[in-house]
Amino acid sequence: FTAEEIWRQLPNIAESDCPSVFMSHWPDVNEDFLDDDLESKWKQLLEIRSEIYRLVEGIGQEEGIKNFAQASVILHTSSPDVHDFLDGYIDDLEDIFTVSKVRLMPPDSPVPDEVKESDSLEGLAIEIRRITGDKCERCWVYSDTVGTNEQYSTLCYRCIAILEGGTYYI
Fold first, then answer.
1. Where does the chain have alpha helices with state H?
2. Alpha-carbon span 128 to 72, nearest angstrom
3. How many CB atoms lie within 10 A of CB 30?
4. Which of 130, 126, 132, 97 has its CA nearest to residue 112?
């Protein structure tokens, strides 16, 4: 269906009010749903993602990274606050950054000499490497777990768990 065909089928839409979906207006913003703290957190996550993208694009050819899914990101934090912030999203960072692997190092761990602290993000150094493993044909994430299961030889452990109805595959 096209947007116009769906629009004509919506209840309570009189053609005289708005004859086309492309002439309609956005709904009014519900002020109760605005959350400045959440917006600030997402702004920080998106700034980190932009820095990761900039680094991947800059070193991609020399590391053999052709797309973001082939990137493994190691986040080095010198600030406990930055570490705690990122740790609160640790289960979602791979999806937020659209990379195959994210590791968050403790604040007291040494940063390799070749990894410099971000100019725009204080307390954070980002290391980019090419991911090892093969691409899962279901989720397109690169993983060392692809090919480790005889029944699902082209899938990663996360996808196998989903297909098997569980939450985690070992």
1. 3-9, 36-63, 80-87, 93-97, 157-163
2. 6
3. 7
4. 126
For residue range 81-120, list pLDDT tens digits in order: 999 999 999 999 999 999 999 999 999 899 898 888 887 8
Query: What angle separates helix 80-87 from helix 36-63, to the nearest 10 degrees?
Result: 90
Coil/strand/helix, residue 131: coil
For the chain, the distance separating the N- and C-terminal CA atoms, rounded to the nearest angstrom, is 42
**DSSP-derived 3-state class of residue 153:** coil
Question: Hey, what's the torsion of the CAs at 128, 136, 87, 74, to 10 degrees?
Answer: -10
Tokens of 29: 């913003």
Unique residue bearing structure tokens 């053999």: 64
For residues 158 and 146, is the Cβ–Cβ distance under 8 A?
no
